[in-house]
Amino acid sequence: MNLKTLAIVAATILFSGTGFAQTSPSIKDDFKPSTFNQPGQEYPQVNSQGYARFRIVAPLAQSVVVSLGLGGTSGGTVLSKGADSVWTGTTKGPMEEGFHYYHVTVDGGVFNDPGALNFYGSTRWESGIEIPAHDQDFYALKDVPHGHVHQILFPSKSTNTSRRAFVYTPPGYEKNNSKRYPVLYLQHGWGEDETAWSNQGRANLIMDNLIAEGKTKPFIIVMTYGMTNVVRPRAGGLRSFDIKPFQTVLLDELMPYVDATFRTIPNQANRAMAGLSMGGFETHTITLARPDVFSHYALLSGGTYKPEEIKDKSKVKLIFLSTGQFENPDGISKATEALKTAGFNAVSYVSPNTRHEFQTWRRSLHVLAPLLFKD
């Protein structure tokens, strides 16, 4: 899938969805604060059916609308002004499980909800709300040994600046000073940054829980900003994105720094690259261009591989393709079968009842991790 096609597909999925499931005839009054609220804040709230309720204090406003979904183009929930000059409202239907971005429009001005935590998405810091999922246990914070997410600053001569990355090291990394680990380079999507996989994606908790259950081999995860712009790009600029400068940052600057700073196994057999959406495009392009660097490839809602694109099959240990049920499951299935027929170790995953959103990618990482770096 080329960059232009990916941009069109992603935009269609991200900005046309309503973010709501089927409307329920009655709403249960069992609302509780969202788990992503600011400390001590009661709103926004979520009930057991997945409805969301908002409360905004804006006594002089004439109109208050909550816009849910990446970019906030899902039509919006119009809030009503009460006798106390406080605006409240509930979504028309239950929302789909998982994480959602949103913002508040007050008399035409766009603001974040003071009651909610903020997350970088839509090329800006947006409010976030979590709709409890039936399978949320796999990314829950549990009483298990935890790894650490380190913030690092690495020198980048190609961009003439210091750049930031986050590095997850698994539980026990600090206690055994001789053990070395494989590495997964994990990329975010368009409009997000290097904080996305830890904050929205819960990648560290997914790994902690899998390792505690003995379901995955411990490995390091590196998450960095997938663009080379000094100024964060505006939405809609994906079509003009040139991947070559980022490829230089990743392969020639970040990777040597990580190998020198952390106890990695610095060879192709023990390196993987994966990414969601735009990060999948980056993964696709870089892994094909440099098969000597990575042996495990994963595209999460980020296109597919064709067998003829891969020149040396012996260098590829795994190709993982995933998507949400309401994205492109048929395309993923067909591409995986074609890869298998050509002799590749290819695995596909379709996330039930999800779209181009973090619940799809959380589940995808949960399925992918145990497949990586098998002996």
What labels would you give this structure?
375 residues; alpha+beta; Immunoglobulin-like; Rossmann fold; 2 domains; 8-stranded mixed β-sheet; 6-stranded antiparallel β-sheet; 7 helices; 19 strands; globular; disordered N terminus
How would the blueprint of this fold be written?
Blueprint: H1 3-16, E1 32-33, E2 45-46, E3 52-57, E4 64-68, E5 77-78, E6 80-81, E7 86-90, E8 98-106, E9 109-111, E10 118-121, E11 124-131, E12 148-156, E13 161-169, E14 183-187, H2 196-199, H3 203-212, E15 220-224, H4 244-261, E16 271-276, H5 278-289, E17 296-300, E18 318-324, H6 329-341, E19 346-351, H7 358-368
Parallel strand pairs: 14-15, 14-16, 16-17, 17-18, 18-19
Antiparallel strand pairs: 1-2, 2-3, 3-7, 4-5, 4-8, 6-7, 8-9, 8-11, 10-11, 12-13, 13-15
Mean pLDDT: 90
Query: How many domains in all?
Result: 2
Helix content: 10-25%
User: Using only CA atoms, what is the Rg?
Assistant: 21 Å
CATH A-level architecture of the largest domain: 3-Layer(aba) Sandwich
Spatial order of strands in the largest sheet: 12-13-15-14-16-17-18-19
The dominant shape is globular
Using DSSP, what is the number of strands? 19
Q: What is the H-and-E element order?
A: HEEEEEEEEEEEEEEHHEHEHEEHEH
Instruction: Name the quaternary structure.
Output: single chain
CATH topology grouping of the largest domain: Rossmann fold
